[in-house]
Design brief:
The chain is built from 3 helices and 7 strands. It is α+β, with helices and mostly antiparallel strands and 180 residues long. β6 and β7 form a beta hairpin.
Length: 180
Amino acid sequence: MALLEILVYPDPRLRNQALPVEVVDTAIGGLVDDMAQTMYAAPGIGLAATQVNLTKRIVVIDTSEHQDQLQVFINPVITGMGEQIETEEGCLSVPGVVVPVKRHSEVQVSALGKDGKLFELHATGLLAVCIQHEVDHLDGKVFVDCLSQLKRDRIRKQLLREGRSSGKTPGQGKESQPAI
Protein backbone atom coordinates (compact mmCIF):
# COMPACT_ATOMS: atom_id res chain seq x y z
CA MET A 1 0.00 0.00 0.00
CA ALA A 2 1.09 3.56 -0.62
CA LEU A 3 0.16 7.02 0.52
CA LEU A 4 -1.14 9.10 -2.36
CA GLU A 5 -0.76 12.86 -2.80
CA ILE A 6 -3.98 14.74 -2.05
CA LEU A 7 -4.58 17.63 -4.45
CA VAL A 8 -5.21 20.98 -2.76
CA TYR A 9 -7.69 23.62 -3.95
CA PRO A 10 -7.45 25.54 -6.27
CA ASP A 11 -5.55 22.82 -8.19
CA PRO A 12 -7.34 22.60 -11.57
CA ARG A 13 -7.10 18.79 -11.56
CA LEU A 14 -9.82 18.81 -8.88
CA ARG A 15 -12.17 19.83 -11.72
CA ASN A 16 -11.58 16.61 -13.66
CA GLN A 17 -14.65 14.42 -13.99
CA ALA A 18 -14.16 10.78 -13.06
CA LEU A 19 -14.92 8.00 -15.52
CA PRO A 20 -16.79 4.81 -14.58
CA VAL A 21 -14.75 1.81 -13.52
CA GLU A 22 -15.26 -0.87 -16.17
CA VAL A 23 -13.96 -3.89 -14.22
CA VAL A 24 -13.41 -4.27 -10.48
CA ASP A 25 -10.19 -6.28 -10.36
CA THR A 26 -7.09 -6.58 -8.16
CA ALA A 27 -5.69 -3.31 -9.54
CA ILE A 28 -8.85 -1.47 -8.43
CA GLY A 29 -8.66 -3.30 -5.09
CA GLY A 30 -5.10 -2.05 -4.64
CA LEU A 31 -6.16 1.48 -5.50
CA VAL A 32 -8.98 1.27 -2.93
CA ASP A 33 -6.44 0.13 -0.31
CA ASP A 34 -4.10 3.03 -1.16
CA MET A 35 -6.99 5.51 -1.00
CA ALA A 36 -8.10 4.17 2.38
CA GLN A 37 -4.56 4.38 3.78
CA THR A 38 -4.25 7.94 2.46
CA MET A 39 -7.63 8.96 3.93
CA TYR A 40 -6.82 7.52 7.38
CA ALA A 41 -3.35 9.13 7.41
CA ALA A 42 -4.66 12.58 6.43
CA PRO A 43 -6.79 12.20 8.79
CA GLY A 44 -10.09 12.16 6.96
CA ILE A 45 -13.42 10.40 6.83
CA GLY A 46 -13.88 10.37 3.05
CA LEU A 47 -11.79 10.51 -0.11
CA ALA A 48 -12.66 10.49 -3.81
CA ALA A 49 -10.24 9.20 -6.44
CA THR A 50 -10.22 12.61 -8.14
CA GLN A 51 -8.67 14.09 -4.98
CA VAL A 52 -5.60 11.93 -5.58
CA ASN A 53 -5.54 12.76 -9.31
CA LEU A 54 -7.19 9.55 -10.52
CA THR A 55 -10.16 9.95 -12.83
CA LYS A 56 -12.01 6.84 -11.65
CA ARG A 57 -15.42 6.83 -9.96
CA ILE A 58 -14.20 5.47 -6.62
CA VAL A 59 -14.95 6.75 -3.12
CA VAL A 60 -13.82 5.49 0.28
CA ILE A 61 -15.60 6.59 3.47
CA ASP A 62 -15.30 5.70 7.15
CA THR A 63 -17.43 7.74 9.53
CA SER A 64 -17.06 5.28 12.44
CA GLU A 65 -15.69 6.52 15.75
CA HIS A 66 -12.68 4.17 15.65
CA GLN A 67 -12.19 4.35 11.87
CA ASP A 68 -12.61 0.62 11.48
CA GLN A 69 -15.65 0.43 9.16
CA LEU A 70 -14.40 1.30 5.69
CA GLN A 71 -17.10 1.66 3.05
CA VAL A 72 -16.22 1.51 -0.64
CA PHE A 73 -18.38 3.01 -3.39
CA ILE A 74 -17.38 2.25 -6.98
CA ASN A 75 -19.43 4.03 -9.66
CA PRO A 76 -21.78 5.54 -7.04
CA VAL A 77 -25.09 6.98 -8.20
CA ILE A 78 -27.35 8.95 -5.88
CA THR A 79 -30.88 7.82 -6.70
CA GLY A 80 -32.86 9.69 -4.05
CA MET A 81 -32.51 12.55 -1.57
CA GLY A 82 -34.25 13.90 1.51
CA GLU A 83 -34.84 17.46 2.64
CA GLN A 84 -32.09 20.06 2.48
CA ILE A 85 -30.21 20.95 5.66
CA GLU A 86 -27.17 23.06 6.50
CA THR A 87 -24.09 21.29 7.87
CA GLU A 88 -20.54 22.26 8.78
CA GLU A 89 -18.18 20.79 6.22
CA GLY A 90 -14.46 20.53 5.67
CA CYS A 91 -12.38 18.82 2.99
CA LEU A 92 -8.97 17.18 2.69
CA SER A 93 -8.45 19.20 -0.50
CA VAL A 94 -9.30 22.47 1.27
CA PRO A 95 -7.28 22.05 4.48
CA GLY A 96 -8.11 24.09 7.55
CA VAL A 97 -11.42 25.40 6.16
CA VAL A 98 -14.76 24.46 7.73
CA VAL A 99 -17.88 26.29 6.54
CA PRO A 100 -21.67 25.77 6.45
CA VAL A 101 -22.90 23.99 3.30
CA LYS A 102 -26.39 22.95 2.22
CA ARG A 103 -26.79 19.22 1.69
CA HIS A 104 -29.60 16.69 1.78
CA SER A 105 -30.37 15.02 5.12
CA GLU A 106 -30.51 11.56 3.54
CA VAL A 107 -29.61 9.87 0.28
CA GLN A 108 -30.25 6.62 -1.50
CA VAL A 109 -27.15 5.42 -3.36
CA SER A 110 -26.32 2.46 -5.56
CA ALA A 111 -22.73 1.42 -6.19
CA LEU A 112 -20.37 -1.48 -6.59
CA GLY A 113 -18.41 -2.64 -3.57
CA LYS A 114 -14.73 -3.59 -3.49
CA ASP A 115 -15.90 -7.11 -4.36
CA GLY A 116 -17.51 -5.81 -7.57
CA LYS A 117 -21.05 -6.59 -6.39
CA LEU A 118 -23.85 -4.05 -6.78
CA PHE A 119 -25.44 -2.77 -3.56
CA GLU A 120 -27.91 -0.10 -2.52
CA LEU A 121 -27.73 1.92 0.65
CA HIS A 122 -29.99 4.40 2.41
CA ALA A 123 -27.75 6.83 4.30
CA THR A 124 -28.57 9.55 6.81
CA GLY A 125 -26.61 12.02 8.89
CA LEU A 126 -22.86 12.31 8.43
CA LEU A 127 -22.68 9.37 6.01
CA ALA A 128 -25.27 11.03 3.72
CA VAL A 129 -23.27 14.27 3.77
CA CYS A 130 -20.02 12.41 3.01
CA ILE A 131 -21.55 10.55 0.08
CA GLN A 132 -22.82 13.80 -1.46
CA HIS A 133 -19.48 15.54 -0.85
CA GLU A 134 -17.45 12.74 -2.46
CA VAL A 135 -19.80 12.26 -5.42
CA ASP A 136 -19.44 16.00 -6.04
CA HIS A 137 -15.65 15.45 -6.23
CA LEU A 138 -16.18 12.71 -8.82
CA ASP A 139 -18.19 15.24 -10.84
CA GLY A 140 -15.40 17.84 -10.68
CA LYS A 141 -16.95 19.93 -7.90
CA VAL A 142 -15.39 21.10 -4.64
CA PHE A 143 -17.52 21.98 -1.61
CA VAL A 144 -16.44 25.62 -1.81
CA ASP A 145 -18.44 25.80 -5.07
CA CYS A 146 -21.49 25.98 -2.76
CA LEU A 147 -20.19 29.27 -1.34
CA SER A 148 -20.35 32.81 -2.68
CA GLN A 149 -17.66 33.94 -5.11
CA LEU A 150 -16.26 36.27 -2.43
CA LYS A 151 -15.83 33.42 0.09
CA ARG A 152 -14.30 31.15 -2.57
CA ASP A 153 -11.79 33.85 -3.52
CA ARG A 154 -10.81 34.38 0.13
CA ILE A 155 -10.26 30.65 0.67
CA ARG A 156 -8.25 30.32 -2.55
CA LYS A 157 -6.03 33.29 -1.64
CA GLN A 158 -5.56 32.00 1.92
CA LEU A 159 -4.46 28.55 0.73
CA LEU A 160 -2.15 29.97 -1.94
CA ARG A 161 -0.60 32.36 0.60
CA GLU A 162 -0.04 29.54 3.11
CA GLY A 163 1.61 27.41 0.44
CA ARG A 164 3.99 30.17 -0.65
CA SER A 165 4.97 31.33 2.84
CA SER A 166 5.71 27.90 4.28
CA GLY A 167 7.09 26.10 1.26
CA LYS A 168 4.65 23.31 2.15
CA THR A 169 1.44 22.17 0.62
CA PRO A 170 -1.26 24.67 1.67
CA GLY A 171 -2.82 23.66 4.99
CA GLN A 172 -0.07 21.11 5.75
CA GLY A 173 0.82 20.83 9.42
CA LYS A 174 -2.41 22.40 10.71
CA GLU A 175 -4.15 20.78 13.64
CA SER A 176 -7.67 19.98 12.53
CA GLN A 177 -10.56 17.59 12.83
CA PRO A 178 -10.84 14.80 10.29
CA ALA A 179 -12.13 16.19 7.02
CA ILE A 180 -14.34 14.69 4.37
